[in-house]
Design goal:
With 555 residues, this protein is mainly alpha-helical. It is built from 24 helices and 7 strands.
């Protein structure tokens, strides 16, 4: 998009020719015209805080778009020194740039004007507050976070591009593993109140994600990349401030989630929401202006989920401990089917703490204006770019794959991008092993993920060989869905129990009490049913992707 002059309205007559540089094909912020008459000091302070500022999204975003106004300039009332807003309820959009008109977008802002801090200031703000949160929560243990970050920054700037993702992965995972070992041999399975492994795990995800995307952007040809890899590829090494902000920003330092570097930079530079809106042909939908998505509804909804999850944690989790399923008295007096039912109950009781933490982390990012993912098929705005779980899909999952895809979504995406898509052989097994290593070295983790490999392969074989026989009629399809839902939920409970119990002794005791039935059934399925090869990601040549994009725009 061509940069153009930003011209004031109302009584302001000055113009500005200071233009920004274009990033990733998106409009750059241009400097806003100043009011012809400066308001009094008190009102200037209000103006600096966003009073009377028209925003394209959900309020005055200090870290996201800053206080972004349409290119129409400063509200007339403010130019006269009055702090009141203009009564107009919407932003009038100016003539769209040629690139937007060609894409079929309605008349939209040809630029954004920032009345607030630059990207560098927002990076510094996010970094400093993130460091403060880390030190406040973890004390001197937080030094592990900073050591890992600086070690990998050195690798990123000194390693050769063909090896940058390998070195970063080995160092980050190696340091994380050493810290995990200390929790067992030094603290004897204890979970400290100052347990720093959670933030370290998130930082490890971000380090390896950025290293792989930097390798894709500089060290590989576009024809070698999948469509997703090409979209997320990073073309230049980040500066130290950008690197620290991405890894240590206060929104994700405690509970994540891991996001992609390009999405985060677009958010800091104020392009995040605008870029997503331009992916939709609003003119075709009958709009004469770009809509203004607000995260308020999404934030309130997610806060309600966190409140319900907190109540469930304080009531159910404490009353239904996982350890009871290996209690000798319980095993002696309870029949097998009743033990299966109780296993489902205690597994459900263990979930609210994850629902609470991940949903709250998502809400925090949304409240800052980060996490807009576009528009769904019904035309509703989506704020799930950083969502870590889909509770409805988890509780109604009819396959092991569907359950995994909706649980800890951002970690699953990280595993796919750094391992599954890049593994030369046995991608499923290597991905599960990496997941176990990333979580820690408690034996229960490895029981869970090794069992998960077996059940995933068996579930895939059953689905590919049997599902099509149940699609001929509605009653058969319903019966199939009910049966697969029951089996999936019980299989997940059977798989994740060692993850909660951690140690070897209770895990072996649990599986003995369950007669290893899921292991035996999975092995029998794999021996009897043929295994069909699964289709891997197909790489599209860059010129083919461009042709498809042009065709879709012509439509």
């Amino acid at each position: 998009m061509q940069n153009s002059r930003a011209q004031g309205t109302g009584t302001g007559t000055g113009t500005s020719t200071d233009t920004g540089t274009s990033t990733a094909g998106s409009p750059s912020p241009a400097r806003c015209p100043r009011p012809a008459v400066r308001p009094p000091a008190a009102r200037r302070r209000r103006w600096a805080l966003g009073a009377g500022c028209w925003v394209p999204g959900a309020g005055c975003w200090v870290l996201g778009a800053g206080c972004w106004v349409r290119s129409g300039g400063v509200p007339a009332g403010m130019q006269h020194g009055r702090g009141a807003r203009s009564p107009a309820p919407h932003h009038r959009l100016h003539a769209a740039a040629p690139a937007e008109r060609a894409a079929g977008h309605p008349a939209g802002p040809d630029q954004f004007c920032s009345l607030h801090a630059s990207s560098a200031v927002r990076h510094a703000f996010a970094t400093l507050f993130g460091i403060y949160f880390a030190v406040f929560c973890f004390g001197w243990y937080s030094i592990h976070l900073f050591v890992l970050v600086m070690m990998n920054y050195g690798i990123m700037n000194t390693a050769s591009i063909p090896n940058i993702h390998r070195y970063s992965f080995v160092v980050a995972m190696g340091y994380l593993t050493l810290c995990h070992i200390s929790r067992i041999y030094i603290f004897h399975y204890g979970i400290l109140t100052t347990d720093f492994s959670g933030p370290l795990m998130i930082i490890t995800q971000k380090i390896t994600t950025l290293a792989c995307q930097l390798h894709d952007g500089i060290g590989r040809q576009a024809e070698e990349l999948t469509a997703e890899q090409n979209r997320l590829a990073v073309k230049t090494r980040p500066s130290l401030l950008e690197y620290l902000s991405y890894l240590l920003n206060f929104m994700s330092i405690i509970a994540g989630p891991c996001s992609n570097y390009k999405d985060y930079i677009a958010f800091i530079e104020g392009r995040h929401v605008h870029m997503k809106l331009l992916e939709v042909n609003w003119k075709q939908k009958g709009y004469d202006r770009l809509p203004d998505p607000s995260p308020t509804g999404a934030v309130m909804y997610k806060l309600c989920i966190t409140l319900v999850s907190l109540v469930l944690f304080l009531t159910l989790t404490k009353n239904f401990p996982m350890a009871y399923i290996v209690d000798n008295e319980f095993l002696d007096k309870t029949p097998f089917l009743s033990r299966l039912g109780y296993l489902y109950v205690v597994t459900q009781a263990a979930k609210p703490k994850y629902y609470f933490a991940w949903t709250l982390a998502d809400a925090v990012n949304n409240a800052a204006g980060y996490g807009f993912s576009g528009v769904d098929e019904r035309g509703a705005f989506r704020w799930d770019l950083l969502s870590n779980l889909n509770i409805w899909n988890i509780e109604t999952a009819t396959s092991f794959k569907m359950y995994i895809e909706n649980w800890n979504i951002q970690t699953a995406a990280w595993l796919k991008r750094v391992c599954y898509d890049r593994a030369p052989w046995y991608p499923t097994a290597l991905t599960f092993i990496l997941s176990a290593l990333w979580h820690g070295i408690y034996p229960g983790y490895y029981f869970t993920f090794l069992t998960g490999i077996l059940i995933t392969l068996a579930a895939r074989a059953i689905r590919s060989n049997c599902r099509h026989y149940f699609l001929s009629s509605v009653p058969l399809k319903i019966a199939y869905d009910v049966a697969t839902w029951v089996v999936t939920q019980l299989a997940v409970c059977y798989t994740v129990a060692p993850f909660v119990m951690l140690a070897v002794e209770p895990t072996v005791k649990f599986y003995k009490s369950m007669y290893f039935h899921m292991h035996i059934l999975s092995i029998l399925v794999l021996l009897v049913l043929p295994i069909r090869p699964q289709a891997r990601s197909v790489r599209k040549p860059q010129n083919e992707a461009i042709q498809n994009s042009v065709k879709s725009k012509d439509k």
